[in-house]
Amino acid sequence: MSTKMNHEEFVKKAIASLRKEGYKGIHTVYSGFNEAFKKYFEGENPVEATNKLASEGKIVIRPVKGGVMLYLPEEAPAPGQNADATLKKMGL
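Now predict its structure.
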């Protein structure tokens, strides 16, 4: 009989398994992560669990349209990277 994964193991496995080709993270809603989390952990709140993991530095959360993206820390995009490129394109 296999033992149940903890939150960290589940989230990291989900990121590695559910991301689409060419992407480093997963969208919590569109990937089905939130529903799978609730089913696996019998109704527990995925937002609370992922926020706790992010505060511990075990994952990185980035807000996006319709939810958030989850990344492994070593694969997360650098914050502000897109803003600098946008300002450069604007000549500012």
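The longest helix spans residues 7-18.
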